[in-house]
Design a protein that fits this description.
The protein is about 40% helix and about 20% strand. The protein contains ten helices and eight strands. It has an eight-stranded antiparallel sheet with strand order 1-6-8-7-3-4-2-5. Helix 1 crosses helix 2 (about 40-45), helix 1 (about 1-30) runs antiparallel to helix 9 and helix 4 (about 65-85) runs antiparallel to helix 5 (about 90-95). It starts with a helix and ends with a strand.
Length: about 300
């Protein structure tokens, strides 16, 4: 029995070592999206053999490092298209594409429409009545829901809300190390600051999960993971289907139109989002997010 216990401990220690090394790779990717993908440099960061490390990465994260970089760059590109006026050619260049045609072809394959059409007709347009024509949002699309208090396992994130995936990756690495990954996990992001009032680099948020049951006694919660309470009570819940890059327009409509016309007031607590599917396995157009605004 002692022999098997020692083996289990060794297995856990080995996995933790790999997760720590590959976690450094993910951090580097998130922080250097504008730079060319350098496999040898990433191998150095991981302190692993350049001949084998990317196979370990794919086995642990379910996608190649090239797929990770492409997904994150396209996710960011969609944000530029939905929320700004940056020329599409510049977006293509910043996303690592040598030609606008190549970028447009890849973007269309992932998002279902070419970049220009996404900018002009994407899901974000329906949240902007002056621009969206007949497909306007209605107040009925918000549900008032009473929720029980929650205690989520979370990792802090400071910076662009579009980059909170970095904290989710760290959190899921910790969950895997502690054998806490389960199909019933609820993924929750808590957002504390208004992007219109706080500089992007200073925005505070938390990437969190709600476990299906109590935390095992054998698991000790320590940094970077903490336990964060989420208040119970009434929430205005807007279900959003589409890319995360469209969320800013959804928030603008929820606060500027629904809340003002509803007769309700927001409570002194942060908004949170619950993600009902994963961006790693779901097409952007089919991502489902519930935006939960606390009410008095």
């Amino acid at each position: 029995m002692t022999f098997h216990t020692r083996d289990n401990m060794n297995d856990s220690t080995s996995r933790t070592r790999y997760e720590t090394r590959l976690g450094r790779v993910l951090d580097h990717i998130y922080d250097h999206l504008d730079e060319p993908l350098d496999i040898d440099r990433l191998a150095e960061i991981a302190c692993l053999s350049p001949y084998h490390w990317h196979r370990i990465y794919q086995a642990m994260y379910g996608e190649t490092v090239a797929a990770t970089v492409r997904r994150l760059r396209l996710h960011r590109a969609a944000g530029y298209l939905a929320n700004g006026t940056m020329p599409i050619a510049e977006i293509a260049s910043r996303s690592g594409y040598s030609s606008l045609q190549s970028f447009s072809r890849t973007f269309r394959a992932i998002f279902g429409v070419p970049p220009a059409q996404y900018r002009n007709e994407g899901t974000h347009r329906r949240f902007r009545p002056a621009l969206s024509g007949e497909k306007q949002m209605t107040l009925r699309e918000v549900e008032i829901r009473r929720m029980e208090p929650m205690a989520i396992l979370s990792v802090d994130h400071v910076g662009s809300y579009m980059q909170i995936g970095k904290a989710f990756d760290a959190l899921f690495g910790w969950l895997g190390k502690n054998n806490l990954l389960a199909a019933e996990l609820r993924m929750i992001g808590v957002y504390y600051d208004d992007p219109g009032m706080v500089d992007e680099h200073a925005l505070r948020s938390k990437a969190g999960v709600l476990l299906p049951g109590p935390l095992p006694m054998s698991v000790t919660v320590s940094p970077p993971v903490s336990i964060e309470p989420v208040r119970g009570g009434e929430y205005a819940v807007l279900r959003h289907t589409g890319p995360y890059s469209d969320m800013r327009a959804a928030y603008e409509w929820l606060y500027g139109t629904w809340l003002v016309q509803s007769g309700r007031e927001a409570a002194d607590a942060p908004v949170f989002e619950e993600y009902l599917n994963s961006p790693k396995t779901t097409a952007p157009a089919k991502l489902v997010t519930e935006i939960c605004l606390p009410l008095r």
